[in-house]
Amino acid sequence: MISLDKITKNGKAMFLAYDQGLEHGPADFNEKNINPNYILDIAVNGGFTAVILQKGVAEKYYTGSKYEELIPLIIKLNGKTNLCKGEVYSPQVCGVDEAMDLGASAVGYTIYAGSQYESTMFQEFGRIVKDAHSHGAPAITWVYPRGKDIKDDAAPDIIAYAARVALELGADMAKIKYSGSKESFTWAVKAAGKMPVVLSGGPKTENEEEFLETVKNVMAAGGTGAAVGRNVWQHADPVAMSKKIAKIIFG
Ligand code: FBP
After folding, report:
1. Which of 76, 200, 212 has most ligand 1 atoms within 8 Å of its beta carbon, as the pocket-test mutant?
2. What pLDDT, on a 0 to 100 scale, did the predictor assign at position 114?
3. What is the atom index within ligand 1 of the atom nearest the CA of 230?
4. How many domains are contained in the chain?
5. Ligand 1: does its nearest atom lie under 6 Å from the Cβ of 55?
6. In sequence order, which ranges of the chain are alpha helices (DSSP H)?
7. What is the pLDDT of residues 41-81, one digit of tens each?
8. Cα of 105 to ligand 1 centre, how many Å?
9. What is the mean pLDDT of the chain?
10. For an engineered disulfide with 75, which of 104, 153, 193, 208 has Cβ 3.0 to 4.6 Å away?
11. C-alpha 210 to ligand 1 mean position (Å)
């Protein structure tokens, strides 16, 4: 099995996700968090085990900078905007070699299971796993069931299916949405077998306790950690919030 050591601490993962500029556009940002340097500082000072960037941001703000020594990088290899509606497909926009040249320790790829384009994404991810492993690097997949046939993308059986899809496709780790309870997330973790599962943060909750409770349930369910974006960098005090999350994940 590929080692996750470079992007975890004591076997646990806490990733700062910052690919929303592509997925959602600047609508997610304010005057501070629109600046990638602000995010990289949070990643370093908040105790994250890696930061997730698209290649353009990585190339201009991470590669060759002081951050290379301070925080491991996960490059997101595919992406799409929310400007196009209809069946979802997220094309690969960066190769594994390119990601390695940018200093990545791991790569990430979103699969919209259930979309009419899932077979294309399965094939792309299959090649990515092979390429990443030839570099000794882990391939993580965000599995988000989506498309006209998916009625409830957070239903417990759908989330457990997402976790299993990642295991079956050879992912080294899966990032999945919360299934709503500790019990249902436990089943999703079980479905993932030996492959670790991390929580995908989601939109900023009304109060921080709500999000911290979710992280607690994920860890109690056997989760390996969390990949969080908006609940941290949209928070008034991102480093303080990160430390609260870290306390739950690392104990
Ligand atoms: P958040 O914690 O901000 O939800 O980030 C997690 C993430 O998976 C990001 O990596 C990605 O940009 C975003 O959610 C995609 O969200 P969605 O597809 O649900 O709009």
Report:
1. 200
2. 97
3. 3
4. 1
5. no
6. 20-23, 36-45, 55-61, 67-70, 96-101, 118-134, 156-168, 182-191, 208-220, 230-233, 238-250
7. 999 999 999 999 999 999 999 999 999 999 999 999 999 99
8. 20
9. 98
10. 104
11. 17
pLDDT digits (tens, 9 = 90+) for 188-227: 999 999 999 999 999 999 999 999 999 999 999 999 999 9
Ligand 1 atom with the smallest distance to the CA of 22 is: 12
Chain position carrying tokens 């997730």:
52
Say how many residues make up the chain. 251
- Catalytic pick among 144, 177, 178, 204: 144
Ligand 1 atom with the shortest distance to the CA of 231: 2
pLDDT score, position 1: 87
Residues spanned by the domain of 71: 5-250
Ligand 1 pocket mutation pick from 19, 78, 159 by most atoms within 8 angstroms of CB: 19
Q: Catalytic annotation on 38?
A: no
Which residue among 12, 55, 76, 175 is the active-site one?
Answer: 175
Is 144 among the catalytic positions?
yes
Whose CA is closest to 139, among 96, 97, 190, 201? 96
Give 109's contacts (C-beta < 8 A, 6+ positions apart): 76, 77, 78, 92, 121, 124, 125, 128, 139, 140, 141, 142
Distances (CA, A) of 249 to 63, 151, 155, 189, 220: 28, 31, 24, 16, 10
Q: How far is CA 238 from CA 47, 50, 128, 177, 235, in A?
A: 11, 16, 32, 21, 5
Q: Is 23 touching ligand 1 by the criterion CB < 6 Å?
A: yes
User: What CATH number did the domain enclosing 59 receive?
Assistant: 3.20.20.70
pLDDT of res. 127: 98
